[in-house]
UniProtKB/TrEMBL annotation:
It holds the Pfam family Zn_ribbon_GRF. InterPro entries: Znf_GRF. Residues 1-32 are annotated as: Disordered. Keywords: Metal-binding, Zinc, Zinc-finger. Signal peptide: none annotated. It comes from Magnaporthiopsis poae (strain ATCC 64411 / 73-15). GO terms for molecular function: zinc ion binding. The lineage of its organism: Eukaryota, Fungi, Dikarya, Ascomycota, Pezizomycotina. This is GRF-type domain-containing protein.
C-alpha cells in the first residue's frame, strides 16, 4: 500500500476493552468489518485493510489470548482491536444475517 494513503487517526485508550466495575463501554458502531463472502476481518483504516490475528505475550490474565488488530506498522495503525472470542460471536451473527450456515 502506498505511504500516501490516508489513515484514520490513532485512537487512545489501549485495547483493554473494559472500564470500571467490569462494565464494557463501547462508543459508536462496532469496530472492524467482517466480510462474510471471504470470512476475513478488516480493520478501520481508510481504505480498509485485512486485519491480523495476534496472541497476547505479556504475562497476566490475558496471556495466550488471541485478538485481532490493524496489521499496519505500529506508527500507521488505525487503533482497531477486537478479542477473538468477541470476533467469533460477531462472525456468527453476520453469517446468520447473510443466510449462510455457520462454519463446521
Amino acid at each position: 500500500m502506498p505511504p500516501s494513503t490516508p489513515r484514520r487517526a490513532r485512537r487512545g485508550g489501549g485495547g483493554s476493552g473494559g472500564s470500571r466495575r467490569g462494565v464494557r463501554a463501547q462508543a459508536g458502531p462496532p469496530k472492524g468489518l467482517f466480510e462474510t463472502l471471504n470470512s476475513k476481518w478488516y480493520c478501520d483504516c481508510t481504505p480498509r485493510t485485512q486485519a491480523a490475528i495476534r496472541t497476547v505475550q505479556k504475562d497476566g490474565k490475558n496471556k495466550g489470548r488471541k485478538f485481532w488488530t490493524c496489521a499496519q506498522e505500529r506508527r500507521d495503525q488505525c487503533g482497531f482491536f477486537l478479542w477473538d472470542d468477541d470476533a467469533r460471536a460477531r462472525e456468527l451473527e453476520a453469517q446468520e444475517a447473510a443466510g449462510q450456515p455457520p462454519p463446521s
